[in-house]
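Revision sheet: structure tokens.
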Amino acid sequence: MPRVLAIVPAFNEAEAIAGTVRHVLEAQPDIDLVVIDDGSNDDTAARARAAGAPVLQMPFNLGIGGAVQAGYQYAREHHYDYAVQIDGDGQHDATYVTHLLAALQADPSLNMVVGSRFADGAGHDGFKSSASRRAGIRLFSWVLSRIVGQPVTDPTSGLRMTDHRAIDLFAQDYPHDYPEVEAIVLMHAHRLKSAEIPVVMRARQGGTSSIGTLHAGLYMIKVLLAVSVGLMRARPTIIPGGEAAVSAERNL
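Predicted:
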């Protein structure tokens, strides 16, 4: 049985985190779970622990990218075979963890599988976010599909599972600004392979989105700029289980 870790980043998710933890533990009793409390100023950490989750508390708010990277560092240090990201707001259905794992195990060339709301077979009943954000997703999908040379239908989905090679990569080098989108570029830069499977998302169970107050147009511009910078920057050479050594080689 492979060792799987669920990484649950949470910032001020006191309303939703206990339900999220219970859902993951009930839906996937054979996997481990860690909540990354990203400097919350409410009782997110206490509620997560009360629901049965170990919690890593960040000393201050790192942002979603820093919190998720802390989870990947935990996964690497504890020698997990796979890690799956599950948002603390309750949007992700943990029953899909089984499908993500099956997709990775069925194709040994894959290093990451993303749950897509927009892939063929995803259906139309799940939560798809606002019209403006869907427009942004379509734009990012168009750009990323051309960068990586394969269809990318849901680049902002945070429901994704990685194998040990991607765990090593993300533990040592992970985007902090717009991590879901930029991580796809990062995977491509290191010649790691990803794929999507159809999923249905749920509405947020509490709290507010971290980008809810940001104008959609400005958000899209910032993400595209971050992707452009990511394409040009030097990448570290990833040493399995070790530290990153800076390399000027770009693997595009």
